[in-house]
Amino acid sequence: MSEPGTRVPVLRLALEADGDGAHPAARRHSGRPPGAALTAGALRAVVAAAEAAGFDLLTLDDSPLPPSAGPDAPGRVEAGTRAAFVSTLTDRIGLAPTLQVTTTEPFHLATQLASLDHAANGRAGWLVGAANGEDDLATIGAQPLGPDELRREVADVIDTARALWDSWEDDAVIKEVRTGRYLDRDRVHPVDFEGARFTVKGPLITPRPPQGQLVVLVPDALDADDRADVVLVRRPDLAGIAERAAEARAAGAPLVFAELELVLDTDVPAAERLAELDRSGSGPWPESGRLRHVGPPAALVELLTRLVEVVDGVRLHPAVLAADLPVLTAEVLPALAAAGLHRAPRAGDTLRGTLGLPRPANRFAATATTSV
Question: Which residues form a coiled coil (predicted)?
Answer without folding.
Answer: none
